[in-house]
Design brief:
alpha+beta, 5-stranded mixed sheet, 4-stranded mixed sheet, 17 helices
Length: 545
């Protein structure tokens, strides 16, 4: 039985959680909660149980944190996150749950919160019916791990049953998508069945006819955008997945995906994606041969002849790049207007291939006008950039003030480096002493020399000291790495000037990024502040012809 001495020291947060029946836990996977669990562990029942416990033990309650309809497979829950924030703001120092499974079902995350986070924050944790109380030595770590393992096993077993159930439904041709496919609606009488959306189906048929008549997905997308035709996400209701806030039009990929969707033949395709495992939200796209496709499950919008002709036309335009191009400025040159990277486009001539830079935003959504092409001859830009960098490096080597700055910095860095290494050694010894003190605290607590509250207070203090020390070592090692880089600046600059053929490693050792504007202005950002010190107008490609 759990008892609490000195309850006036605590301000409690009461956490309640319950998974709804048939609730999706990711990628359409359904976690079924049985009737008995819902009845005995309903939110109202949990709240009453926790409130009565606090009343019986004279514990002050700060707030209830309730996640109703959220799986224990994830710890990214709205109310749980609010509780963690209140812990960090020192509003509560006691977390109480009905049982450990209400807190969560992933043993690794349970271990993190109970054995690290709560201890560091000075928070006591109680799972009443499991008789778990981190404020008492009687709560064994082995018991917590056993309970956590059992709860995770339940989740894994349920996930396996769900997968088997989904596979059975897939073989029956049931629709198991959250949102209906563009051109269809969920049948009100059976949400696992499609009926035609009479308002949108004509748009789908028109898209297929345009493609059958030889029009490319890019051209079709431009027509639909110009006509302000609603995109699929605005019709079927999944517009919330758009993260950048830009209202999109129809692009080539959207049209191409629609044209390749076998749903329009009246088929149902399930198992198109698969979760990596029951702990992760990440999914992988499954090969076509591993998907479960059932024909004749709903009224088709497109006939097979049209569909097959369109697939042949798409295949005839699809080319697989057999050669990937490696170029000197790859990954560090970007568009000044939108910030996206610039890629290259080959233009073949009878005797040679010429490469041009192109903005990726423009390439992906040309007809939307989100950016401009930024088309520039790659060879011209590369030569121009290298010459500008060499000029800056020569200036650095020739001008006395830069040399003095570098030499003074080097002398200071060598002295600081020695001090940094000494400080790291001192702190590492301090951490060893802290660990010994923590071990001694456990021993004294076991021998009854400490009350629970005193042990928790002293333990939390040592944990905080260790955390601060480890953070300081991390900062010092980062400083050490930066100092090492700074010491080599003279050599890097001189090598760049003297080298006849510039390598990519040399370039990225000096340059952070290069911006090119639509008006052909080039701005080079160096990794060393000394090289960025000289204030000047941006160079322009047009000045060099």
């Amino acid at each position: 039985m759990i008892t609490i001495a000195n309850p006036e020291k605590y301000v409690a947060g009461l956490y309640e959680r319950l998974s709804n029946e048939n609730i999706e836990v990711g990628n359409g996977e359904v976690l079924v909660t049985d009737e008995d669990e819902r009845e005995s562990g309903s939110i109202s029942t949990q709240k009453l149980f926790l409130r009565n416990f606090c009343k019986d033990n004279n514990i002050q309650v700060y707030d209830d944190y309730t996640d109703d309809g959220v799986s224990g497979a994830t710890f990214d829950r709205p109310s749980f996150n609010r509780m963690i924030k209140d812990i960090e703001n020192k509003k509560i120092n006691l977390v109480i749950v009905k049982d450990l499974s209400r807190f969560g079902r992933l043993s690794s995350m349970i271990s993190f919160y109970l054995e690290e986070f709560f201890i560091e924050k000075g928070v006591r944790f109680i799972a009443i019916t499991d008789d778990i109380d981190t404020g008492h030595i009687e709560t064994s770590e082995e018991m917590v791990q056993f309970k956590a393992f059992f709860n995770e096993w339940y989740l894994r077993d349920t996930s396996r049953k769900v997968r088997n159930g989904k596979k059975t439904r897939a073989k029956e041709g049931k629709v198991m998508t959250t949102y209906a496919t563009y051109g269809y609606k969920k049948d009100p009488a059976d949400y696992n069945h499609y009926i035609i959306d009479q308002d949108i189906a004509p748009i789908v048929r028109r898209i297929f006819m345009l493609a059958r008549n030889g029009m490319t997905p890019t051209d079709i997308g431009k027509i639909l955008t110009d006509e302000r035709t609603l995109v699929p996400s605005e019709v079927v209701g999944n517009g919330h997945t758009r993260k950048d806030g830009i209202k999109r039009g129809w692009n080539r990929n959207t049209v191409k995906r629609l044209l390749q969707n076998v749903t329009y033949l009246g088929w149902v395709s399930n198992g198109n994606t698969k979760k990596i495992n029951y702990k992760s939200k990440k999914t992988m796209i499954m090969p076509k041969e591993d998907r479960i496709v059932v024909k004749g499950m709903h009224t088709p919008i497109v006939d097979e002849e049209t569909f097959n002709i369109v697939q042949e036309q798409i295949a005839s335009r699809t080319s697989t790049r057999v050669k990937s191009y490696d170029w000197l400025l790859k990954g560090i040159v970007c568009c000044k207007e939108c910030g996206k990277k610039l890629s290259i486009v080959p233009q073949k001539h009878p005797n040679k291939t010429t490469f041009y830079l192109r903005c990726n935003t423009y390439a992906g959504n040309t007809h939307l006008g989100l950016c401009t092409s930024h088309s520039n001859n790659l060879e011209k830009v590369t030569n121009f950039v290298i010459e500008q960098i060499k000029n800056r490096c020569r200036q650095f080597l020739n001008e006395e003030k830069y040399g003095k700055i570098a030499d003074n910095s080097k002398d200071k860095i060598l002295k600081d480096k020695f001090n940094v290494k000494n400080e790291i050694l001192i702190i590492e010894k301090k951490i060893k002493d802290i660990n010994k003190k923590i071990d001694k605290l456990y021993e004294d607590k076991y021998n009854g020399l400490f009350e629970d509250e005193d042990f928790t207070r002293l333990y939390s203090k040592q944990i905080e000291n260790r955390k601060q020390s480890e953070e300081r070592i991390k900062q010092l090692k980062e400083l050490e790495e930066k100092e090492d880089s700074s010491v080599d600046i003279n050599k890097l600059v001189k090598d760049f000037v003297d080298m006849k053929e510039i390598t990519r490693n040399m370039l990225v050792s000096l340059v952070d990024k290069i911006e090119i504007s639509e008006s052909k202005e080039i701005t080079i950002y160096y990794k060393f502040n000394i090289l960025n010190m000289r204030k000047e107008e941006n160079e322009n490609l047009e000045k060099v012809g």
